[in-house]
Specification:
The complex is a heterodimer of chains A (about 250) and B (about 290). Helices cover about 35% and strands about 25% of the residues of chain A. With about 250 residues, chain A is an alpha/beta fold. Chain A folds into two domains: about 170 residues, P-loop containing nucleotide triphosphate hydrolases (Rossmann fold, 3-Layer(aba) Sandwich), CATH 3.40.50; about 70 residues, no CATH class. In chain A, the strands form two sheets. Chain A has a six-stranded mixed beta sheet with strand order 6-7-8-3-9-10, sandwiched between helices. Chain B has about 290 residues and is of the alpha/beta class. Chain B folds into two domains: about 150 residues, Rossmann fold (3-Layer(aba) Sandwich), CATH 3.40.50; about 70 residues, no CATH class. Chain B has eleven helices and twelve strands. In chain B, the strands form two sheets. Chain B has an eight-stranded mixed beta sheet, sandwiched between helices. A four-stranded antiparallel beta sheet of chain B has the order 2-1-4-5, covered by helices on one side. Classes of the chains: A alpha/beta (about 250), B alpha/beta (about 290). Chains A and B meet through helix 6 and helix 9 of A and helix 8 and helix 11 of B.
């Protein structure tokens, strides 16, 4: 039986605004298995990123819970960080996760110095190992983010996330800013990571990217999952009209 | 058919970096062309050069003819009159195009007053007409909203509406107009763009790395690679029978439902010193080899 790494149960999040409230996430449940990739797909504002930020501990839910390795995740500062030590999030804009005045090595160092007591040599060798894993070389260590292309920055952001040996990657629209060639390259690297046993929660509005990477797809609309199934089923035999519209827009 | 735009041997340098190298093409009236290519290939520089919006200090050579007149031979004042009136521009990020401190209604009024030389009170009917044409759901609340209160897609539609408000528009320049939008809004915006272009009987010059968008809206396709226009042809010619290896790689990397798009062969070559020859594949379809 497949091992469940992440289990989201009846998750809800309501944002209260001045004179009204918005149900961004409404009674969402799903499981993510070890070494598999689940895509959360839907239009802007459907609640995909809110789910990601709840799982990552940036936002507390209004209801429901998130189980990670069979432990219910907390949203209190200290324990929340410890519980999520093997979970990493990668963002749409790689420049927002790389400090502009730090070199690539310093940026990658930041990912571990507060958690591990590694020597500088070990940090450097680990950084090189993960850069190579992402198709880059050690010559990138001394470069600064502004000297890199968008695709290189995103690969470094992934390499930085890998420094802490995560078993879960949350990828929030990580290919949206990239052109088609770089986008395909990033997907190729994610497939390799998945094959090495890392689970991926892949958030995107573009169904066309899910075919070769994702094992399952959950289609979201207005804060709810309206259809979820194995990738081939969703892409070839969508049941809901909205999913059909998304597929039509994507291909 | 008359050409609305003729670009001849256009070169642009930023300091010592050559961003555009000898670009040649013509855009017929009422037709749409998309320039596709990866980031850094010079697409946006090409659009900025045509709009006269290159950053200070950049060196430009070659000719850009807009409706038979050399655009760069005109005075700065005359160029500014053409921009926004005969040339409409749609930017990648609509929030940057709209003033964050002014309501949408006020911004549309200002734009129309400036372009049509009419009084503020006379702009209202025109604004309502345009927004109704574009099927805006609740025109009144859109007009009283600030840009941050609208979604990215809605802001982009407002910037298209502003272009549509100007009946003199002969050429629409659009720089990655859908890259900030999700798939559904993307296809709606693409349709709106084509409808607007047809309604104004204008030409459209689109810069994008979204192959599907280019396929949806274009009559012609120009493929850019490292500052050169390496292939040119009708959309059908480029997408059905691409000739250049780079064009093939680019189209192969575009996600498809039933075929493997991940194992395309990345193309890499220099465009610096090599002498290029233009090879005619069929009438109107050429490549640089």
């Amino acid at each position: 039986m497949e091992k469940t790494i992440l289990s989201v149960k009846n998750l809800s999040k309501t944002f209260n605004q001045r004179n009204h409230s918005v149900d961004a996430v409404n009674d969402i449940s799903f499981d993510l298995y070890k070494g598999q990739c689940l895509a959360l797909v839907g239009e802007s504002g459907c609640g995909k990123s809110t789910i990601a930020s709840i799982i990552a501990g940036f936002t507390a839910p209004s209801g429901g819970c998130v189980m990670y390795h069979n432990t219910q995740l907390s949203f209190q500062n200290k324990s929340a960080q410890q519980q999520r030590s093997t979970m990493q999030m990668i963002f749409q804009n790689p420049l927002s996760s790389l400090a502009p005045r730090m070199s690539v090595l310093e940026n990658m160092k930041e990912a571990v110095i507060y958690h591990e007591k590694w020597s500088n040599e070990k940090i450097e060798s680990e950084a090189i190992r993960h850069l190579v894993r992402m198709g880059l070389s050690e010559k990138y260590l001394n470069r600064y983010p502004h000297q890199l292309s968008g695709g290189e920055c995103q690969r470094i952001a992934i390499a930085k996330a890998l420094m802490r040996q995560p078993d879960l990657l949350i990828c929030d629209e990580i290919t949206s800013n990239l052109d088609v060639c770089v986008q395909a390259e990033i997907i190729r690297y994610l497939i390799e990571l998945k094959q090495s046993g890392i689970s991926i929660l892949f958030i995107t509005h573009d169904l066309s990217l899910t075919g070769q990477l994702c094992d399952y797809i959950a289609v979201m609309k207005n804060g709810k999952i309206i259809e979820s199934n194995r990738t081939e089923e969703i892409l070839n035999h969508p049941k809901k009209e909205y999913t059909q519209t998304l597929i039509k827009a994507a291909f | 058919m008359n050409n609305i735009l003729n670009v001849k041997n256009l070169n642009v340098c930023y300091g010592e970096t050559a961003a555009l190298k000898g670009i040649d093409f013509s855009l017929p009236q009422g037709q749409a062309v998309s320039f596709i290519g990866e980031s850094g290939s010079g697409k946006t520089t090409l659009l900025s050069a045509i709009a006269g919006l290159l950053p200070k200090g950049s060196q430009i050579s070659g000719d850009i003819e807009f409706i038979g007149q050399n655009f760069y031979a005109l005075s700065e004042k005359k160029r500014r009159q053409i921009l926004g009136n005969q040339i409409g521009i749609i930017f990648q990020n609509p929030e940057l195009f709209l003033d964050p401190t002014e309501k949408i209604g006020k911004q549309m009024e200002d734009y129309i007053m400036l372009q049509h030389h009419i009084k503020r009170k006379d702009t209202h009917n025109k604004i309502y007409d345009i927004l109704n044409q574009l099927s805006f759901p609740d025109v009144k609340s859109v007009l009283s909203a600030y840009p941050f209160e609208l979604s990215g897609g809605m802001c982009q539609r407002i910037s298209i509406a502003m272009v549509l408000s100007c009946e003199n528009t002969k050429l629409i320049l659009a720089d990655e107009p859908t890259s900030a939008l999700d798939q559904i809004i993307r296809s709606q915006t693409a349709k709106l763009l084509v409808d607007t272009q047809k309604k104004l009987q204008a030409s459209l010059l689109l810069v994008t790395h979204d192959i599907k968008l280019a396929q949806d809206v274009s009559d012609y396709i120009g493929v850019m690679y490292k500052g050169k226009l390496i292939e040119w042809g009708t959309a059908e010619e480029i997408f059905i029978s691409p000739y250049h290896d780079y064009t093939k790689a680019l189209i192969a990397a575009s996600p498809k439902k039933d075929t493997d798009f991940l194992h395309f062969r990345m193309y890499d070559a220099t465009t610096d010193s090599k002498e290029f020859l233009r090879k005619e594949i069929s009438p109107g379809h050429w490549v640089l080899i």
